[in-house]
Design a protein that fits this description.
By secondary structure, the protein is α/β, with parallel strands linked by helices. The protein is built from 31 helices and 24 strands.
């Protein structure tokens, strides 16, 4: 400062421009910036203020102007200069001087410190990663001392908050008490922490609901280490993600427990508003760009501030672009435009801490900082705790037509939902029942209700199952009925943490707009971006069709039906040991015994057995003691069932259905579920000695060419798309996967070729006959895998003359064929 003061002591007022140039040069402002400011001062006297980055603003004024009108700029700039013909005035918020002669400028150098580039706070990822283990170890050791987990969490968050505020305001209260903290007994540590809190007036930032925390020597050192850590440049989003993983349940922290969240969230923002913003700048539509900078950003999910923090940072970046391109002042990003509603205390405190940190870092980097400003920002944050599916989103973030809803709801399958969660979904969606819809889908439907008929948008990270299976109709019909439309989507990808290469979950990103339009929609599939007129619920371009179960096939083909329902299966079915022992005792029962295959039995190549007795055989069959005892056992068990059909009570020798394979023929068996780790859904043939249960599907007495078509990648892609998953297993359904599957044109020659592929496939499988088919397809031998690739190539060629390079290409083609077939 002394050097700057010396440079200004001999300043002369040849002109306002010369004086200003000398002042700015003394503070090392680049020459090109000075010239731009001088040009603007010359052009715009009495018109508009001229800003120097975000460090100061200069206004030209006549002698008669009322200076009070210029105080409005103090909310945006650390220092305001008012330049008149013979004197200048300035205000820094805490200090104000009026009518200063230009020659006296050196007397006020210390008040002009904001002209210097003090530098933005540079976020330090590695420092943040080093800080996280301190938090984790402190939490662990406090737990070993029997501190209440919630108390320990609030205590640690309070410590981080105190350390951050103390460093930002440079009060050094922690430094003052460090010596005493190091020398005190562990049980006295709380007293010194309290002195730091109240002397620094930090109590209004804190929770302070917990009782005295129990300490030992280890925890005392960790508390001091945490308070002394340089958290001023902490990366709050990364810190929040890691801390959330420490304190929250594993299910809640899946997406946010790693530092990749920022990368993926920014992909979401790119499609939601960044591309639109930059297009507006390129087309000189500055007002449209300004709307994005001034929009509200609302996260009604439990991300620990990840979405609003990254949205805030992205808008700061875009504001700078706006200033550079438009030659206007950069827009100050208003923290009040960011709203979050979470449903638990951990997410609430972390969200508030993370967003508070990033707002203060922004204020410190670009504007003036003071204790009052820090307090006002903290108290003005719009972070709330409520039931996200039952509360009114409008009450927390009114929809003015310029709202972006962002976030990622909790991922939880329908079967894992509690009764209260299911009731919350019904309330939010207006459903009488929710069938099999995933939990996260309720946010999508509620969001559609919120934006319907407005220019607001919603963009969520969701489990990919919302775009698969039977729940597609449940979820997407009401969304379309509200007039909403998918504006962009990212097809399913793995949300992965590169630090340890672990996969959190397969997700999709979906953006909805509140009104239909002809604007181009963006569909991202891996590295490709498709520009299309519409995007459907299966995330396919140019088709909004929903595939629904069909009781009969959409084109001629062999009929597939569900297998036979045994009713009282534990009594009807028996194992090989029972079968062997009873046949040895009475060989006459063997003609009445058949193998039984459901999904598990087929996958494990371990059939069970049943009695299969025709009506005309019954009287003779029950003369055998084992069969008579079984019939009595089955009758008794069925009478105990509430839903057993009456005819089965009188016919214990029958299944609900009685379909079997004719002698000399074969039937195709298709298990109803298969592991998601298998590339192909295993299926195969059974014969007259075997019965298929209702846990599998069957095409009875079929020609063998059908196997090659249905084991193809083409059919597997379709079944995964339209059937979805049961927990983590791939489903299969005759009415959804088979009856809706678009068959290619099948000539006699094509069927003969498919037959040859089937026969060769069976031969290759027989080479591995000692391996159950489920295990065989979980870890496919190269020979089997290579032959399946040949089948895939041939079947692909039946659908398209052009190569199909990806499963997306297959899905798009099949959806188009399906839509054409149902519209005939």
């Amino acid at each position: 400062m002394e050097q700057i003061k010396h440079a200004l002591e001999s300043i002369e007022l040849n002109s306002i421009e010369h004086w200003l140039s000398t002042l700015l040069e003394a503070f090392d402002i680049p020459g090109i910036t000075i010239r731009k400011i001088l040009d603007k001062i010359g052009e715009r006297r009495n018109v508009v203020p001229i800003s120097l980055y975000r460090r100061a603003v200069f206004l030209y004024s006549t002698e008669d102007d009322d200076l009070s009108v210029f105080t409005q700029y103090l909310d945006t700039y650390p220092i305001v200069f008012i330049l008149k013909d013979s004197t200048f005035s300035f205000s820094t918020g805490s200090f104000q001087e009026v009518g200063v002669p230009y020659s006296d400028v050196s007397d006020y150098v210390t008040e002009f410190q904001s002209l210097q580039n003090r530098g933005r706070i540079e976020k330090d990822l590695f420092s943040t990663l080093d800080f996280a283990p301190i938090v984790a170890e402190l939490n662990s050791r406090l737990g070993l001392l029997d501190n209440n987990p919630i108390d320990a969490f609030n205590y640690i968050i309070d410590l981080i908050t105190v350390a951050f505020v103390d460093q930002i305001l440079e009060q050094n209260v922690i430094l003052k008490y460090e010596k005493w903290m190091r020398s005190c007994e562990p049980n006295n540590l709380n007293g010194y922490v309290s002195q730091i809190i109240f002397e620094g007036e930090y109590n209004q930032f804190l929770n302070l609901t917990y009782q005295d925390i129990k300490h030992n020597a280890h925890t005392k050192e960790l508390v001091i280490k945490l308070l002394k850590y340089d958290v001023k440049g902490i990366d709050s989003e990364v810190l929040g993600s890691i801390v959330y993983k420490i304190f929250a349940s594993s299910e809640e922290s899946t997406l946010y427990g790693n530092q990749t969240a920022k990368t993926y969230i920014n992909r979401l923002f790119e499609a939601l508003f960044v591309i639109k913003f930059r297009d507006s700048l390129e087309n000189l539509n500055y007002d449209d760009a300004l709307k994005i900078l001034e929009a509200s950003y609302f996260d009604p999910t439990n991300s620990p501030g990840s979405f609003i923090v990254n949205a805030f940072l992205k808008l700061v970046e875009l504001s700078n672009e706006y200033a550079q391109v438009s030659h206007r002042n950069a827009i100050k990003i208003d923290y009040a435009n960011f709203v979050s509603v979470v449903d638990n205390d951990i997410a609430f405190r972390l969200t508030k801490l993370n967003f508070f940190i990033v707002c203060i870092q922004y204020q410190f980097s670009y504007f003036r900082i003071s204790k009052e400003i820090v307090y006002n920002i903290f108290n003005g944050l719009r972070i709330y705790k409520d039931n996200q599916l039952r509360c009114s989103w409008e009450s927390y973030c009114p929809n003015n037509g310029n709202v972006y809803i962002i976030g990622s709801p909790t991922f939880r399958g329908n079967r894992k939902l509690s009764v209260s969660q299911k009731n919350d979904m019904k309330y939010a969606c207006g459903f009488s029942k929710i069938t099999d819809a995933d939990y996260s889908s309720a946010w999508l439907i509620k969001g559609a209700n919120y934006i319907s008929g407005t220019k607001s948008s919603i963009a969520l990270v969701l489990t990919n199952s919302v775009c698969q299976g039977t729940q597609v109709a449940t979820i997407w019909k009401p969304i379309y009925q509200k007039g909403c439309q998918i504006s962009f989507a990212y097809n399913s990808f793995k949300w992965m943490n590169p630090e340890n290469k672990t996969v959190a979950v397969s997700v999709v990103m979906i953006g909805l707009q509140g009104m239909r339009s002809d604007a181009v929609k963006l569909l991202f599939n891996k590295s490709t971006c498709f520009r299309c007129r519409s995007i459907g619920p299966y995330l396919i371009q140019n088709s909004e069709v929903i595939v629904e179960a069909q009781s009969s096939p959409i084109s001629p083909r062999p009929k597939m039906i569900k297998g036979n329902m045994p009713y009282a299966a534990e009594q009807v079915l028996f194992d090989i040991d029972t079968k062997t022992a009873q046949v040895q005792l009475d060989p006459g029962i063997e003609p009445y015994i058949r193998k039984v295959y459901g999904s598990k039995e087929f996958m494990d190549n371990a059939p069970r057995y049943c009695l299969w007795i025709a009506d005309e055989q019954y009287d003779v069959a029950i003369t055998h003691p084992f069969i008579k005892a079984k019939m009595d056992e089955i009758s008794s068990a069925r009478r105990a069932l509430k839903d057993c059909p009456k005819k089965l009570l009188d016919q214990p020798h029958k299944f609900r259905e009685n379909n079997d394979t004719n002698r000399g023929s074969q039937s195709l068996i298709v298990p109803s579920v298969s592991s998601e780790n298998r590339q192909y859904h295993p299926m195969g043939f059974v014969y007259n000695d075997s019965i298929v249960t209702n846990l599998s599907f069957a095409i009875y007495d079929c020609e063998i060419w059908i196997l090659a078509l249905l084991v193809s990648r083409m059919h597997n892609v379709w079944s995964k798309l339209v059937c979805g998953q049961l927990e983590s297993r791939n489903r299969y359904s005759n009415e959804l996967a088979y009856n809706t599957f678009p068959f290619p044109r099948l000539s006699v020659e094509i069927k003969e070729t498919l037959k040859e592929y089937t026969l060769n496939l069976i031969k290759i499988r027989e080479e591995f006959c000692e391996v159950p088919i489920g295990r065989l397809y979980s870890d496919m031998p190269p020979k089997l895998k290579n032959f399946h690739a040949q089948i895939d190539e041939y079947v692909d060629s039946l659908y398209s003359n052009d190569p199909l390079f990806s499963d997306y290409d297959r899905r798009a083609l099949l959806i188009s064929m399906y839509e054409s077939s149902i519209n005939v």
